[in-house]
Design goal:
Rossmann fold, about 180 residues, globular, seven-stranded mixed sheet
């Protein structure tokens, strides 16, 4: 057999197995995520909102549904803050743990953020589906402190007027970023 053919077949097999792992992990938590998939936040979106949020050295940041931890890594690169990510999808959780393992100020927890208090965080970020946003709106109204900044990609908080709406340049569909100051 040709060595090139074997190598290509090996790569295709690995990619197929990774895709199947992604599908299995997504299906496993679909009831909790209400259909939300693990999708990375584009760098242009992260760079855009980082220009507009007030971050102090002592700020604490949480990413609700942190995926591969990309937002947490970018925030840590720009600001020297503590960061926590919640992720329930096992595939995304493992990616976040791997990609964030070198940074001791980033913690990743495999938990449902709806079961945890958000009161301690100064900056809360999410990229979630609208039906999860409805539950999150009530949670934030009850738990967000007076100086909390909340950032949401694509979907607003239910019944709340955003303080700022950003539309990054060079995005495919002009998806908004909503910023709320509590």
């Amino acid at each position: 057999m040709n060595i090139c053919f074997v190598a290509i077949l090996g790569i295709i097999t690995v990619l197929f197995l990774l895709k199947m792992l992604y599908v299995f992990c997504t299906a496993w938590v679909i009831r909790i995520t209400r259909g939300a998939l693990f999708v990375t936040t584009p760098n242009i979106r992260i760079e855009t909102f980082l220009q507009y949020i007030p971050v102090d050295h002592g700020s604490s940041v949480v990413d609700l549904g942190c995926g591969d931890g990309r937002v947490l890594r970018k925030i840590r690169k720009h600001f020297n803050v503590k960061a926590l990510g919640y992720e329930i999808n096992p595939f995304a959780y493992m990616l976040a743990k791997i990609f964030c393992c070198r940074d001791k100020k980033i913690r990743i927890k495999r938990r449902d953020f709806l079961d945890k208090s958000l009161a301690e965080f100064d900056i809360i970020f999410c990229y979630l589906f609208p039906d999860v946003m409805e539950e999150l709106t009530i949670k934030l109204q009850n738990e967000a402190g007076p100086d909390t900044v909340f950032i949401s990609c694509n979907f607003p908080l239910k019944g709340q007027m955003a303080d700022q709406v950003l539309v990054p340049e060079k995005t495919r569909h002009n998806e908004p970023i909503f910023i709320y100051y509590f």
